[in-house]
Prior knowledge:
The complex is a heterodimer. Chain A is of the alpha/beta class. Chain A has two domains: 20-200, 3-Layer(aba) Sandwich (Rossmann fold), CATH 3.40.50.970; 214-346, Rossmann fold (3-Layer(aba) Sandwich). Chain A has twelve helices and 14 strands. In chain A, helix 2 (61-65) links the parallel strand 2 (41-45) and strand 3. In chain A, helix 3 (77-90) runs parallel beside helix 4 (108-115), helix 8 (237-250) crosses helix 12 and helix 9 (268-278) crosses helix 10 (293-305). Chain B is an alpha/beta fold. Chain B has a single domain (4-252, 271-343), classed as Thiamin diphosphate (ThDP)-binding fold, Pyr/PP domains (Rossmann fold, 3-Layer(aba) Sandwich). Chain B has twelve helices and five strands. Chain B has a five-stranded parallel beta sheet, sandwiched between helices. The N and C termini of chain B lie far apart (61 Å). The model of chain B is unreliable at 5-24 (pLDDT under 50).
Amino acid sequence: MTVNESKTPHAPHASGAPRVMNMVQAINEALHLEMKRDERMIVLGEDVGRVGGVFRVTQGLWDEFGDDRVIDTPLSEGGILGTAIGMALYGLVPVPEVQFADFIFPGYDQIVSELAKMRWRSGGEYSAKMVVRTPVGGGIRGGLYHSQSPESLFIHVAGLKVVCPSNPHDAKGLLLAAIRDPDPVLFFEPKRIYRAARGEVPEGDYVVPLSKAKVVREVDAADAGRAAVTILAWGAMLYEAIAAADKAAEQGIQCEIVDLRTLWPVDIDTIVASVKKTGRVIVVHEAPKTCGFGAELIALINEKCFLSLEAPPVRVTGFDTPFPYTLEMDYLPLAHRILPAITETARY
Amino acid sequence: MSSLATASAEAGDGGVGGKDVAPQTGLAAGRALYAHAARARLLSARMTFLQHAGRVAFHAACIGEEVAIAATAMALREGDWFFPGHREWAGALVRGIPTATYAHQAFGTAVDVVKGHGAPDHPASRARHVVPASGLIGAHLVQAVGAAWAARMRKDDVVTLAMFGTAAAATGDFHNAVNFAGVFKAPCVLVSRASRLGAKKADLADRAAAYGVACASVDGGDGLAVLTLVREAVARAAAGKGATLVEVATERFTSLPDEWSAPELLSLGAAGADPLARLRAALERDGALDAAGHEALVAELRAEIDAAVAAAEGAARPPIASMFEDVYAELPAHLRAQAEEASS
């Protein structure tokens, strides 16, 4: 699985050959780079040290930076996030890992009531900038407590930024941008594509700016007059959108695909420009439909370009149930569920 | 009262070494403590009356506990960090937040440091290392541990201290705080006000022992004893011997004179029951305070509070745009649009 549609220019490898990495390697490289660059940065979480994290994303950091900067903590998300906030108040740059996004809720109070509001409640006297990294999403036979996508529960909270990369290049660049950002960032890593998504990753330091979406497949202006559909997606579901778009193309339907990359604050300008061009929009996400981020995206589209719409906006999402173990591939909004939405929207 | 040396020895760290113990408290410290506590008493009474009159929406009264709170805050050294709960706002004043600044925060004015964002009794100061209280009981305890841990990592000679009412000892955050403090030997002091008005006795010593954290208790009616004990705990933390949980037994007076300016406000309850009157008697006995000196101090404090309240109550409220400030470091597009909508 590669994002071969990327138009991002890649720096050549030292040997001249492109460096191909998976998401785990790219994120790991970003953590290494930033810990070297910024001695205030620390990593903490459950088994992030000697073990290197449950998905091995922090592998090697403990060997290089030691106990003081790569910290194995007791199993308590409230403790991890609460102490990380104290460290951030003091001036360190913590990058805590929550082993699965499903486990973030024991620390949700510290994120929602404390982290998100620290700058505001102190009138700017204090901030608690940090990046909370956590694997997100289903498709790994993880069952209901290792598969959820809780992004909208954080987008709803004033003061947080929310990021979800879809490929190794963006994962590295977005993580470096997030760690250097002055605000707290939830960095959701789509675990289904941790190793499956491979792509070229430049060596050294670069950032992918927050709040900039990427049009990964563009509809030619000449085709926009015919049936064309904008698909908004992020993380692992981007590849499902691409697969469905490939099938739709066989039926003569063109899709413009926008990888949001940063979910909040969202790059609404790129979305509106695309919807104005196609007049049709589908949002794809793994999270349950009701009050999912798709609802907000469609409300924003209605507010900003209602008169450009040729068809009702559509959501293809997880269902309003807990995440199922046996039937996870029926729950997820995979390409076979996106394709009918494309054809119906195009023919509306 | 259990001594910290005993508790410390039980925690297996060899006790508090002589060179680590802060200097004994002298008359100057006693006089300073009395002034801090008397200011808190007068201010809390004034705020209580303002709340009853509907002029402020909220006040966390600390009448009867202000000596313990002020002594605890005084025990910190320059550069140490203070994490108060909402009822320990008086400690923030001890750490250097002026009464006028407190009043502007309580009234949420245009010159309020926190821009009217927070309810009364939640002052903040980066320069003074006073972290604004949370509305959530106990949430700050684990943050104080994290900040202490960070200070140790940076090899800074800094101790953090969090105060809380004993009810907070039932929260998950309390257990996270003591657990993480024990595991990482964070240089912090967690001070519980064990008010008889509060929850059932929490047996904090048992909980501290379970996490390998030292614990000591002290009579909150004896301000100088609180100051001495908390100083020892701060010194112990600074010496790398880890966290201490301090229980301060306090009692809050809820029955006040009809007027906030009544002289009996400074001597409440039965004879010997008021920690403030008890401290004053001790200072008078030692010749550190006489009637004329006391009268002058109280007049000065009342004038300071009058001026602060008048200035804050007369000040403009913050501009609407300030509601949108500090959500993020920079105003994102959606908030810029909402700020324009709110201001139009």
